[in-house]
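If your schedule permits, I should be very grateful for your opinion on a structural question. I would ask you to consider whether the tokens describe a fold that such a sequence might reasonably adopt. Thank you for your consideration; the sequence and its tokens are set out here.
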Amino acid sequence: MARRVYGQHVTDYQRILVVSTQAADGDLAKVRGRLGSSAVVLTAPTGDAKRVVQALGRGARPEVVLAPVRFPDVDRGHRLDEVVRRHAVADRFRDVVVVADPATITLLLRVLAPDQLPESGPVTEVGLRRGTRPVPLGPAVAAGVGLAVVAGLLSAVVPVWVLPLLALLAGLGLLAAPARRHVGQTLLIATGVALVFSLLAIAGSSRFPGSW
């Protein structure tokens, strides 16, 4: 399911910016300023689309299906939807820009956002629902072990619980920022791993004095 969103970034939706080849330079400058660093631009292989892409200042991936046609097939809208979703699914946490003529955009939006009324203007923002960013468990575990080791090495200077506590507080704080929630979750996992690793090390040093 897709929906259109205007004037704000919705963190649990992947942003799809559909830009008309009739967009003015001012509209394109606004789009350029909102794009993330990993954004991908899909474009019709036409001269008008090339002007838009150049104004956006990004490399683009030409897609023949986005080229204007005089007599569209009955399934053209679905083919347009498929190519946009294919590029979106390749990385659910990047912006996708689609540059095409107004007629092509109308067909695309009818399938991509069928529950939305048409809006005037050369730029339409559509949000594709996505899940939360996955937490990299491997790096989180490695960070937890490293945190425990550093805390142990600095225990003569700083209480051993200080670094894990700081990591815990930072993780809890980042949970409130949706765009950084996965970082907060990583820190919380790392803190838990550090605690378990430290307890095992303490237990081992009790059995074998001098090993920690």
Observations:
- Residues 1-10 have pLDDT under 50 and may be disordered.
- The CA atoms of residues 36 and 167 lie 28 Å apart.
- The chain has two domains: 13-129, 137-204.
- The domain at 13-129 is CATH 3.40.50.1240 (Rossmann fold).
